[in-house]
Amino acid sequence: MKEKAEKAKRTKSRLILDLCIVLVLLPAVLLCCFLFLIAKPWRHWKPAEVSVQIQEPQESPCINPEGMTQETRILPPEGYKRIPAAGNSFLSFMRQQPLYENGSMIYSYDGKALSNANAAAVYSLSVGSEGYQECADSIIRLWSEYLWSQGRKDALRFHLTNGSVCGYRSFSRGKRVLAAGNHSVMIKLAPASDDEQTFHDWLMTVMRYAGTLSLDKESVPVPVQEVHPGDFLCTGGSPGHAVLIADEAVNEDGKRCFLLAEGFMPAQSCHIIAGYNCDPNPWYTEEQLSADPVCVSTYTFSGSTVLRRIGLPLT
């Protein structure tokens, strides 16, 4: 009887210990599962499926309907010439960006055709089907695609809205962003990989958690006299807006003009902005960019510091 009592006591003790272990480990396991579901390391970027639709385009002396790149489609205004661009520069990269056929609609992340009333031309750069590539994201996307094309992977790093930095190098080692509220960390949840799919998965993560607020904070004001392609106009907010300076031309008197490009909501094709107030000339003058407010065909930027330049060492 005594042995049975001792055995029952030991069994009860083990049950209590096992229960304590379960009570301690269960919350940790549930927390890990919850964080894993938030990070979604199995989720991969994929392009939106679109069916190209053409709308009768507005005639303009600055549009060459046969051109299929930014440089060959959008001609400088009369009396202006494009500034020279080094072969490995961001400006050269933008000029080589392919476009959809002249008159193409804009396409949303779910494949729907949207009005092109405010677009002089639409880039054929794919939009992710996840719905994150809006205005600031389009600038991040174009800069990142440029850096990737140059093999400058160490420069692929952007701030998220909460101030954290998400770099491609960490992402390629398998680290993923875990975000809760205004806090985030990067922990290893996936195998290491370094290819184009990983690059676009990283971009998807950055665009998910970044925006005009983060782009505004990690950039610095630049005077209009020093503005060049790659800089941008930005009003940080929710939603705010951001527009990229995509090209530059100059006349014999030194007067400059610029092409502007943007994404918008809902997430959609990046496109070259049409001229303000239905102007068939899509080039915006230095005088227009020095005004306060700065009016483009889709937004009005107010304030003396809306012209910005990325503060990270991208150039």
Question: Your description of this structure?
Answer:
A hairpin with a 3-residue loop joins β10 (232-236) and β11. The longest helix has 38 residues, at 2-39. The strands form 5 sheets. Strands 1, 4, 9, 10, 11, 12, 13, 14 and 17 form a 9-stranded antiparallel beta sheet that branches. Strands 2-3 form a two-stranded antiparallel sheet. A two-stranded antiparallel sheet has the order 5-6. It is elongated. The chain has helices at 2-39, 70-73, 90-95, 135-149, 168-172, 196-209, 212-217, 286-290; strands at 80-82, 106-107, 113-114, 119-122, 157-159, 165-167, 175-180, 183-188, 219-221, 232-236, 240-251, 256-262, 271-273, 284-285, 294-295, 300-301, 307-310. α4 (135-149) runs antiparallel to α6 (196-209). It is built from 8 helices and 17 strands. By secondary structure, the chain is α+β, with helices and mostly antiparallel strands. The chain has 2 domains: 1-39; 70-310, no CATH class.
Spell out the blueprint of helices and strands:
Layout: H1 2-39, H2 70-73, E1 80-82, H3 90-95, E2 106-107, E3 113-114, E4 119-122, H4 135-149, E5 157-159, E6 165-167, H5 168-172, E7 175-180, E8 183-188, H6 196-209, H7 212-217, E9 219-221, E10 232-236, E11 240-251, E12 256-262, E13 271-273, E14 284-285, H8 286-290, E15 294-295, E16 300-301, E17 307-310
Antiparallel strand pairs: 1-11, 2-3, 4-13, 5-6, 7-8, 9-17, 10-11, 10-17, 11-12, 12-13, 12-14, 15-16
Helix pairs in contact: 4-6
